[in-house]
Specification:
It is a single chain. The chain is of the alpha+beta class. It has two domains: 112 residues, 2-Layer Sandwich (Phosphorylase Kinase, domain 1); 203 residues, Aminoglycoside 3'-phosphotransferase, Chain: A, domain 2, CATH 3.90.1200. The chain is built from twelve helices and twelve strands. A five-stranded antiparallel β-sheet has the order 1-2-3-5-4, sandwiched between helices. The longest helix is centred in the middle third of the chain and has 19 residues. The radius of gyration is 21 Å and the shape is globular.
Amino acid sequence: MNVQEAVLQERIDPKLTDETLAELASRAACGSDAGARRVDGYRVLTGGCWNRVIGVRAGETDLVYKISPHSDDEKIIREYSVLTAFSELTELPVPRPLHLDRGELLPGTTLVMSRIPGAVMHECFGTLSDRDRARITEKIAEDLARLHRIKGRGFGGVELSEKGRHARWPDFWLPRFDRVIEEAQVSGVVPEALIGGARDIRPNIERPLDIGGESTMTHYDIWSGNVMIDIRSDPPKVSGYIDVPGFYADYARELSFAMLFGVADRRFFSTYLRHHALDPGFELRVNIYNLKMNIRHIQMYPSERFYRRGAEENLAFIRREL
């Protein structure tokens, strides 16, 4: 058991009574749904990493509670704001933020949101037919292309005003690159050739990342673990997207992540490109973003060759282009 799981078991789990969960559900429904007061237990969806995430059946409504044991948890509070922005500005199906409890009913910080039906994509995709997988891939491409038509000014959280965002994309993204390289140096598991190569190209990557002041609204974490599939539907369909970081960013950063983890393949791009064009610097920027992501994942999974090989290929491409 890790330390965070022990904290959750000590501070949060004893407080998860039917009465408290029902009161949170009632407040999420603004007191208008009497059925929301009927709660019979809960189911842990995830836990032990940082938050306790549970599923609650309140009357006829399925809810998700994300609970941090820490008071005024900035990440939980921000997630509420991000989901609110997505609900107001986009058609992307994401959980609806229903209530934010800042320690009144449960210790810490609790976000109550609607539950997206189905299973995460990586758990069920292999069980689907080729036709169903193709349909789902095309739908993800259409959803992201539609999202990427929403433009803004400046780079940063979708919950921020334009004045609260960075004027330049490199000012937002490069500190994240630098932090990963510093962590990689300390970890001792990333090959020195990759760390040295990343440091060598660092002075030259700001220019291709300077994409102007126009930004794109992005989910920012599209991979098969954050795409929900309703497998009970006939045919199975994309039911929504979860764990939304939500940034005005470079659309290529969104797609680079989806490419790295196999969501954005040739079929994806054949659909995406019908709705959203790629600019001439797209491929170079994708390799820059995925160099960072591969180096980060080498630290997480040092025995897997996949990420090391990917970082080597990214670095070689960047060197050729620069």
